[in-house]
């Protein structure tokens, strides 16, 4: 009697094993990748300066713009075009000289790199997700997301030139 | 003893584990949609796209629904003939003109037969045309925006049923009347129907670039009922075929009186010949009254124009243009195979399925072998034009589609099934039951030279127990069959809106790349558009107040308005300043006697509010737009009619 039970149990176990076989195969393909070094958390908890006033001229942000060369003199034609684009596409949330829904662009080039500014215009969704400063800005400005107004690169560049005129 | 029971129990459990563990490669031995391989065939993984679009008529909902195949997922209900509060269709000031007719504003219709535009006999995915059956109209839906952009009313028509099918280069979209009526309409006894009522077949030209519709001519035919129609294609391009019933010309108890004749007709119309006749000045201009409504994407606005005349053609004046093909027993669907040779008459009270030959028809016409005439229109001999018949394939044939591989698929309403048969040999190859009482069916590209014969969708008239009950009214059921193999296989049931009468489908790749994501602000030519917050304003003109308002995540500008008075008519012209995909905003005003607005990025829409009480009344965004959606709100102060409250508007004056 006991033998029967044993046999049955064995059979059952075999069935279960045969079932699980497929999963095991999958596991074989799994390989362990090198553990990435943990990024050192350098954010100083005591730094209470709001993100909008902090200066970071090195970060280029996340997005299509990798390097921008600014000319010594402001290109006035381009700036005028940029002002027009800004008025049309940005003033619903940004006023040149004062905080509105979002921060004012006056003096922005003293706080951010030109690349960061253009990436914020052209790629806001990824910026607020992946760029530490943009992330903080989103919180500082009530979680109001920077809208992607689908500016062309040329338009964003012109807006940047316009920002240079804002002192 | 106990041990035996235990061990048996263990063994049974083991078996259950075994059978439950992997049946993904089991074959059809498991019947129906329960087999997992069948489930896989309709499974579209999260984030993946369906292979086909299906445009399924909304029937008595008046709309057009958009489904994905094979998943059967509903993507959109495009408002066409009926007001839709969700999208403000027929409620906002911009689209109200779309529902104007010669009878005034008609907020509903019965939408029947969508058909996709074609180029060189193949589906091109630019527009869908669909007919309003009740107050005769043809609508055009633009497949770059999935919006109805044009509706033309059909004069001299009643029960616009044998519509809205396109010729192979979309030269025409055709609208045939179901009811014959006095033409022109006049006060006369109903019993004098016979010989006095007429049926109109309307050919609407479609301008190739923008699809602009215009009635080219109306063929004034004998007073039969014109049921369905299809264009010739390939060799028969230039002809159009219409099924008829009630050739008895009965005006009462048609259930009996319209089923007396052994055969009714398929009317074959050589439209190229009539077009030539009309282009040479033929036809009679007749006074008429019909609305032509056009939506302009640049102004985001529709206009309605009443047209006052229509060109009519008496078939007897164009010899050789119209012939009648005897077809047994009140044929419904009138379907032409991809080669253009075979014309299937689905005689709904006939035991056999009749197939005519286009070649034989031409031959009989050439030899002038006529059996007689009906009001002067030559009738051909049944035997002379018959290609063959499918013998007793089922009961109540309604509609036939083709897979492009030489097979035809016919629905049978009474015997509730789809039957697959072979063109040329007329043999039945397979049959599958429908649950229940199938009406029309659809193979993507079925009404063209190039069908994609992978799936067929059957649209059933009766649902009964197929879904969880929802009270006396239940959804209408569609069923998807795989037709890629020799035998058809039922894959899926899915619910539909209204009562789908017909559908058209095509590969998603034909439409997807052209689908618009937003409306560029720069191209917005709405007369009341506000393209930047600097331009927002409130303007009073007597008791009419225009609010030029903008919206962007997450505020309205202005959001405080004062100086509105009881008795004013306040028009909110609201522009969505967003220029990103899928960021619409909505707006609604407490007590407004209309729907919300749902405004796409870059678009302007208008609603009317007539404040009836003093107070401070809120408005808000109705479409969840951002984390601050709930903050997207504003107030309008309403003063007494004789008050002196100055007109003021503002946004965030105190923000610092």
Question: What do these coordinates show?
Answer:
The complex is a heterodimer of chains A (167) and B (656). With 167 residues, chain A is an all-alpha fold. Helices cover 50% and strands 0% of the residues of chain A. Chain A is globular. About 8% of the residues of chain A have low confidence. Chain B has 656 residues and is mostly beta strands. Chain B folds into 2 domains: 456 residues, YVTN repeat-like/Quinoprotein amine dehydrogenase (Methylamine Dehydrogenase, Chain H, 7 Propeller); 130 residues, Cupredoxins -  blue copper proteins (Immunoglobulin-like, Sandwich). Chain B is globular. Chains A and B meet through helix 1 and helix 2 of A and helix 1 of B. Chain A: Keywords: Heme, Iron, Metal-binding. Chain A: InterPro entries: Cyt_c-like_dom, Cyt_c-like_dom_sf.
Task: Indicate the topology.
The complex is a heterodimer of chains A (167) and B (656).
Chain A: H1 2-28, H2 76-89, H3 108-111, H4 114-122, H5 124-130, H6 132-140, H7 153-165
Chain B: H1 2-21, H2 36-42, E1 52-57, E2 64-69, E3 74-78, E4 100-101, E5 104-105, E6 115-119, E7 122-132, E8 137-142, E9 147-153, E10 162-166, E11 172-176, E12 198-206, E13 213-222, E14 225-231, E15 239-245, H3 254-257, E16 263-270, H4 271-279, E17 284-296, E18 301-313, E19 322-328, E20 331-336, E21 342-347, E22 353-357, H5 358-366, E23 370-374, E24 377-380, H6 382-385, E25 386-390, E26 397-402, E27 407-412, E28 417-422, E29 428-433, E30 438-442, E31 455-460, E32 476-482, E33 489-496, E34 503-507, E35 537-541, E36 544-552, E37 555-557, E38 560-565, E39 569-576, E40 585-589, E41 597-599, E42 604-609, E43 615-620, E44 633-639, E45 648-650
Parallel strand pairs in B: 13-18, 36-39, 38-44
Antiparallel strand pairs in B: 1-2, 1-34, 2-3, 4-5, 6-7, 7-8, 8-9, 9-17, 10-11, 11-12, 12-13, 14-15, 15-16, 16-19, 17-18, 20-21, 21-22, 22-25, 23-24, 26-27, 27-28, 28-29, 30-31, 31-32, 32-33, 35-36, 36-37, 38-45, 39-42, 40-41, 40-43, 43-44
């Amino acid at each position: 009697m006991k033998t029967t039970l044993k046999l049955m149990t064995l059979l059952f176990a075999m069935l279960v094993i045969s079932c699980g076989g497929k999963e095991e195969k999958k596991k074989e393909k799994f390989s362990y990748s090198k553990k990435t070094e943990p990024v050192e958390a350098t954010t100083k908890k005591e730094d209470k300066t709001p993100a909008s006033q902090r200066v970071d001229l090195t970060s280029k942000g996340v997005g299509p713009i990798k390097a921008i060369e600014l000319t010594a003199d402001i290109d006035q034609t381009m700036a005028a075009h940029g002002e027009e684009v800004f008025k049309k596409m940005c003033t619903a949330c940004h006023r040149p000289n004062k905080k509105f829904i979002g921060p004012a662009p006056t003096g922005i080039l003293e706080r951010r790199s030109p690349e960061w500014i253009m990436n914020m215009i052209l790629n806001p969704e990824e910026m607020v997700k992946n760029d530490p400063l943009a992330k903080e800005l989103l919180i500082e400005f009530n979680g109001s997301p920077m809208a992607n107004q689908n500016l062309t690169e040329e338009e964003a560049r012109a807006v940047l030139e316009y920002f240079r005129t804002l002192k | 003893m106990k041990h035996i029971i235990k061990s048996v129990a263990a063994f049974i459990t083991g078996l259950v584990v075994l059978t439950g563990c992997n049946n993904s490669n089991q074959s059809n031995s498991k019947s129906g949609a329960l087999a997992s391989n069948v489930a896989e065939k309709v499974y579209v993984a999260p984030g993946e796209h369906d292979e086909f679009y299906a445009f399924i008529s909304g029937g008595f909902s008046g709309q057009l629904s958009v489904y994905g195949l094979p998943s059967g997922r509903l993507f959109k209900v495009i408002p066409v003939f009926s007001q839709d509060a969700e999208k403000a269709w027929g409620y906002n000031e911009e689209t109200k003109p779309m529902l104007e007719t010669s009878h005034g504003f008609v907020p509903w219709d019965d939408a029947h037969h969508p058909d996709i535009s074609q180029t060189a006999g193949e589906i091109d995915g630019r527009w869908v045309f669909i007919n309003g059956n009740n107050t005769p109209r043809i609508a055009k839906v633009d497949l770059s925006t999935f919006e109805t952009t044009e509706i033309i009313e059909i004069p001299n028509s009643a029960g616009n049923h044998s519509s809205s099918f396109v010729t192979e280069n979309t030269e025409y979209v055709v609208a045939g009347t179901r009811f014959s009526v006095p033409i022109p309409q006049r006060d006369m006894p109903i019993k004098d129907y016979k010989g006095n009522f007429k049926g109109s077949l309307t050919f609407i030209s479609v301008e190739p670039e923008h699809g602009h519709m215009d009635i080219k001519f109306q063929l004034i035919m004998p007073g039969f009922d014109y049921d369905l129609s299809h264009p010739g294609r390939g060799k028969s391009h230039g002809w159009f075929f219409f099924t008829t019933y009630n050739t008895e010309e009965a005006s009462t108890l048609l259930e009996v009186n319209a089923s007396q004749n052994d055969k009714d007709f398929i009317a074959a119309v050589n439209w190229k010949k009539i077009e030539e006749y009309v282009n040479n000045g033929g036809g009679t201009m007749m006074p008429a009254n019909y609305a032509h409504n056009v939506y302009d994407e640049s102004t985001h606005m529709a206009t309605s124009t009443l047209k006052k005349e229509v060109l009519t053609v008496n078939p007897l004046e164009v010899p050789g243009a119209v012939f009648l093909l005897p077809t047994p027993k009140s044929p419904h669907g009138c379907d032409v195979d991809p080669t253009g040779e075979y014309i299937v008459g689905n005689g709904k009270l006939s035991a056999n399925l009749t197939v005519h030959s286009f070649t034989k028809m031409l031959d009989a016409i050439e030899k002038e072998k006529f059996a007689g005439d009906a009001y002067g229109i030559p009738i051909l001999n049944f035997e002379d034009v018959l290609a063959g018949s499918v013998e007793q394939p089922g009961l109540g044939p309604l509609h036939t589609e083709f897979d492009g591989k030489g097979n035809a698929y016919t629905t049978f309403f009474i015997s509730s099934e789809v039957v697959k048969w072979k063109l040329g040999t007329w043999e039945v190859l397979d049959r599958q039951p429908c649950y229940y009482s199938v009406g029309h069916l659809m193979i993507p590209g079925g009404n063209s030279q190039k069908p994609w014969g992978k799936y067929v969708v059957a649209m059933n008239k009766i649902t009964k127990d197929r879904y969880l009950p929802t009270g006396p009214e239940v959804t209408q059921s569609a069923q998807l069959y795989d037709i890629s193999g020799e035998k058809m296989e039922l894959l899926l049931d899915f619910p539909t809106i209204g009562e789908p009468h017909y559908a058209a489908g095509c590969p998603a790749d034909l439409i997807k790349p052209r689908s618009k994501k937003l409306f560029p602000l720069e191209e917005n030519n709405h007369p009341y558009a506000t393209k930047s917050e600097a331009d927002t304003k409130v303007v009073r003109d007597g008791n009419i107040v225009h609010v030029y308002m903008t919206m962007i995540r997450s505020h309205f500008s202005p959001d405080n308005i004062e100086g509105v008075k009881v008795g004013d008519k306040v028009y909110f012209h609201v522009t969505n300043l967003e220029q990103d995909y899928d960021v619409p905003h909505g707006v609604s005003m407490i007590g407004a006697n209309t729907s919300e607005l749902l405004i796409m990025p870059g678009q302007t829409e208008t609603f009317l509010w007539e404040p009836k009480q003093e107070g401070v009344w809120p408005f808000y965004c109705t479409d969840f737009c951002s984390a601050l959606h709930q903050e997207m709100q504003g107030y309008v102060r309403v003063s007494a009619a004789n008050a002196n409250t100055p007109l003021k508007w503002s946004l965030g004056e105190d923000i610092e």
